[in-house]
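Lab notebook, bench 4. The sequencing result for the construct came back, and we need a structural model before the next group meeting so we can plan mutations. Quick request posted to the team channel:

Model the 3D structure of this chain.
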Amino acid sequence: MTAAIYSLFIINKSGGLIFYKDYGSAGRMDTNDSLRLASLWHSMHAISQQLSPIVACSGIELLQADTFDLHCFQSLTDYVLKNPFYEMEMPIRCELFDLNLSQATQKNHVALLGR
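Done. Here's the predicted structure in token form:
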């Protein structure tokens, strides 16, 4: 099944929001709201890893609500790292990253695992 991407948050391993892009037409969140949401998601994800009865649980992967699904994809590598001027854990400001991300999301439908 396919679904639209409305927003993309990239959170570093410390829980800091390093990238946010809004694709929805319902209005963009202000900076404080996006930071709060990223921090809340990071905290819930970390707590779920510790509370899970499954050994080596990777945490929450999908949170389903009535009007949206919130997916967590973890990546060990990142195309941003190909930029020699990018510093780890810092906000992502890379033109090539933005271009490739736009191309990936302009396809209007993105296949999401587990749906």
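Residues 29 and 53 are 35 Å apart (CA to CA).
Will bring this to the meeting.
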